[in-house]
Write a structure and sequence with these properties.
Layout (H helix, E strand, L loop, with lengths): L7 E4 L1 H14 L4 E5 L1 H5 L3 H8 L5 E4 L2 H9 L6 E3 L6 H10 L2 E4 L2 H10 L6 E6 L14 H8 L5 E6 L12 H11 L6 E2 L3 H6 L7 E2 L25 E13 L4 E2 L5 E2 L4 E6 L16 E4 L2 E6 L7 E4 L11 E8 L2 E3 L1 H7 L4 H6 L7 E3 L3
Parallel strand pairs: 1-19, 2-3, 2-9, 3-4, 4-5, 5-6, 6-7, 7-8
Antiparallel strand pairs: 1-10, 10-13, 10-17, 11-12, 13-16, 14-15, 14-17, 15-16, 17-18
Helix pairs in contact: 1-3, 4-5, 5-6, 6-7
This protein binds pyridoxal-5'-phosphate.
C-alpha cells in the first residue's frame, strides 16, 4: 500500500543485475546460484528474480512453497532449497517440479527415497559439515548417507559446504581441507563459496558459488566497503523531515534523554523508526543524509521517528529529503556503515525492513 507518510524503500533491479554480474566476474569459472532467500534479503523475491531472470544460472531459497511459486510463475532455471525438505509433501514437490534440494540429514534422504522415481533424476546437494557445525554430514555420518543415497534410483549429486569465517581472519583453508578429507575420491561437482569467499578466496568457489549479500550491494566484510568491490546498493531507505526543533544547551533529545545538546541546536525529526526496520540500537552519531549532505542521528531511535542534527543544514526544513541508507535523493549512506554503528550487519537491516514501508521499484 502506498501511504502519504513519506517513508519509502526504493529497490533498484539494475543494481541487483549489476551485482550478479560482479559475482560472475569474481568467480568466472563457476555457475552462480542467486540467493533470494528471506524475500531476497528484504528486496522482494519476485523483484530480484525478475531482475535476474534472463541471466541467473539458478535461484536459491528456503521454502519449498516459494520455489514452487517461482516455477509456476514461469522460472525455468534450477531452483535450490538451501535447507532441503522439511516434510513428505516437500519431497513430493521436489520430485514433481524438478527442484534441487540440499540434503543435510538422513531423515531427508529417507523422505526423498519414498518419493523418488527412476524416470525423474533427483538433484541433490549433499551438505558436508566442515566446521560451521550447523547443518551437514561429518565423518561419522557421511558413510551412512552414502549408503542410503543408493536407495534413490536416479540422482545427480553435488557436494556442498558452507564457510563460517570466510569474512574473517581464519579464512576458509581449514574448512577446504576438511572438505577434501570428507569428499575423498569425489570428482563430481561441488558448491562452496558465499559472497565473502567469492570476493576474497578464489580457491574456495567450486563449480557453483552462492552469492547472497553481494547481490544486494552490501559488503560481507567489516573491513572492506561494498564500493571497493564495484557493488551498487540495491535498496535505499528514504524519508523526509517532518518536524524541526530548536533546542538550548543542556536540553536532552528523545526517550531516555540519551543525547544532551552541548550548544543551541537545530534538530530534524525524520519519519522513520524501529517499526520501519531502522535499528533501535543505532546510537547518536549514526550517519544519515539530509538534502544532499551527511549528518548524524541524535538520541534514541523511537518507534516511528528519529532525530538528526541540522546544525550545518540551515536550509533543511519540513519536507527535506532524508536518506537512511543506500543511494537516495538526499545522498549516499552505505547500509554497511549504518549497520556497523548499530552493532549489526547490513544483512539484518535489509531483512528487517518492515512490511509497513511502501516499496518503490526503479523504472516502474
Ligand atoms: C545465505 C546463504 C548463502 C549466501 O551467503 P552470503 O553471505 O549472503 O553471500 C550461501 N549459502 C548458504 C547455504 C546460505 O544459507
Amino acid at each position: 500500500m502506498n501511504t502519504s507518510r513519506p517513508i519509502r524503500a526504493r529497490i533498484s533491479p539494475a543494481a541487483i543485475l549489476h551485482n550478479y554480474r560482479q559475482a560472475k566476474a569474481s568467480a568466472p569459472d563457476a555457475w552462480a546460484w542467486a540467493v533470494v532467500k528471506a524475500d531476497a534479503y528484504g528486496h522482494g523475491q519476485l523483484r530480484a528474480v525478475e531482475a535476474l531472470q534472463g541471466e541467473a544460472d539458478g535461484f536459491a531459497l528456503l521454502e519449498c512453497e516459494n520455489a514452487v511459486a517461482l516455477r509456476e510463475s514461469g522460472v525455468r532455471q534450477p531452483i535450490l532449497l538451501l535447507e532441503g525438505i522439511f516434510s513428505e509433501r516437500d519431497a513430493q514437490q521436489v520430485v514433481k517440479h524438478g527442484l534441487h534440494s540440499a540434503v543435510h540429514c538422513l531423515e531427508q534422504i529417507d523422505m526423498l527415497v519414498a518419493h523418488a522415481r527412476a524416470d525423474r533424476p533427483l538433484s541433490i546437494y549433499l551438505k558436508l559439515n566442515t566446521g560451521m557445525n550447523r547443518l551437514g554430514f561429518d565423518e561419522a555420518t557421511l558413510p551412512l548417507a552414502w549408503e542410503r543415497l543408493k536407495r534413490i534410483p536416479a540422482v545427480n549429486l553435488t557436494l556442498m559446504t558452507h564457510f563460517a569465517e570466510a569474512d574473517g581472519e581464519r579464512g576458509v583453508l581449514w574448512q577446504l581441507e576438511r572438505f577434501q578429507a570428507l569428499a575423498g575420491e569425489w570428482h563430481g561437482p561441488v558448491s562452496l563459496g558465499n559472497s565473502a569467499a567469492i570476493l576474497r578466496h578464489p580457491l574456495a568457489h567450486g563449480d557453483w558459488v552462492r552469492p547472497g549479500i553481494m547481490l544486494y550491494g552490501a559488503s560481507p566484510f567489516a573491513d572492506q566497503s561494498a564500493d571497493s568491490f564495484g557493488l551498487q546498493p540495491a535498496m535505499a531507505l528514504e524519508s523526509r523531515i517532518i518536524g524541526v526543533q530548536t533546542v538550548k544547551t543542556g536540553d536532552r533529545i528523545g526517550y531516555g534523554g540519551t543525547y544532551t545538546a552541548e550548544r543551541p541546536m537545530r534538530i530534524g525529526i525524520v519519519a522513520c523508526g524501529y517499526a520501519d526496520g531502522y535499528p533501535r540500537s543505532a546510537p547518536t552519531g549514526t550517519p544519515i543524509a539530509v538534502a544532499g549532505q551527511m549528518t548524524r542521528t541524535l538520541g534514541r531511535v523511537s518507534m516511528d521517528m528519529l532525530a538528526c542534527d541540522l546544525n550545518d543544514l540551515p536550509e533543511a526544513g519540513i519536507g527535506a529529503p532524508v536518506t537512511l541508507w543506500g543511494r537516495g535523493a538526499a545522498g549516499y549512506v552505505p547500509a554497511d556503515e549504518v549497520a556497523a554503528a548499530a552493532g549489526t550487519i547490513a544483512y539484518e537491516l535489509f531483512c528487517a525492513l518492515a512490511p509497513r514501508v511502501p516499496v518503490a521499484v526503479d523504472g516502474q
